[in-house]
């Protein structure tokens, strides 16, 4: 089973400001006509999305649900039920290993995981298979970190690196577990 | 006056382990025959190096002084004198602005600054002109951070990005001040 990270980060390693906002990322200065940076291809290739409570609350607050029709699993031990009923969104309160066992039983082939805490937990658990990191040309100074503590250092393998005219640098890595 | 950063960082943003060690960076797996990643060109182009106390103590402990003949300024307010007398190395205990005033008077054209705290302080002061960041394909989990807090976010301009066969990704940025 492939477990993929596809995320944007400031050069200093933040995926959002401390209040969770990503307005700095949505800046018009970064728009490149006809360029989606590979997001849609990954999204389409994945059976489902896994995200944490914070990411869910963030996207559930958008005017439009960004993942119509896509299966989404929200990892949370604090939610008793999802605060907002959205088609195809389910709550999971077990461990990562239990989640992967369930998804393996269900014959899932490719999972897209999102959000700093989820990514950090999956990396620590040693189950991420690949990461596409898009580095935005900005220093935020503070925010919600992409990476966190690990019980041991982890070598990763660069698959490709590409700079874009809008200043993004996208690096793809294979993760050894 | 150009003030350049040229530094390697783990993908999770650390320039050294917590004890200051960079053994993970010196790993033989990263050796690429005949490839210096542009370090020598920058080093040769610079009139002088500026580093902090930690970086100085680190390199002063090497078997061989790595900057023979190069002017080096060590920024420190705690040192009364340099603990080790090395030719062409001087102590400066003033502010960054005072340092730049002095170097401007001395007609310095290009400064290479090194070390996390020095880089962070120069960025916060708004005097860095360009950064070459080489991202090493490893997650350390903890360590000495390349970037730190800033009083306001800072847009930077990507000049080039390149992936290497050893997994390094080198990105060059112009910094607006």
Q: How big is the Rg of chain A?
A: 16 Å
Could you give the order of strands across the largest sheet of chain A? 5-4-3-6-1-7-11-10
Series of H and E elements of chain A: EEHEHEEHEHEEEEE
Major pleated sheet of chain A = 8 strands, mixed
Brief digest:
The structure is a homodimer of 177-residue chains. The first copy, chain A, has 177 residues and is an alpha/beta fold. Chain A contains 4 helices and 11 strands; from the N terminus they run ββαβαββαβαβββββ.
Chain-wise SSE layout:
2 copies of one chain form a homodimer.
Chain A: E1 2-10, E2 14-16, H1 39-45, E3 48-52, H2 53-60, E4 71-75, E5 89-92, H3 96-105, E6 110-114, H4 116-125, E7 130-136, E8 138-139, E9 144-145, E10 154-163, E11 169-175
Parallel strand pairs in A: 1-6, 1-7, 3-4, 3-6, 4-5
Antiparallel strand pairs in A: 2-9, 7-11, 10-11
Description:
With 177 residues, chain A is an alpha/beta fold. The first copy, chain A, is built from four helices and eleven strands. In chain A, helix 2 links the parallel strand 3 and strand 4. The first copy, chain A, is globular. At the A-B interface, strand 8, strand 10 and strand 11 of A face strand 8, strand 10 and strand 11 of B. Strand 10 of chain A pairs antiparallel with strand 8 of chain B, so a sheet runs across the interface.
Name some characteristics of this structure.
homodimer; alpha/beta; eight-stranded mixed β-sheet; globular
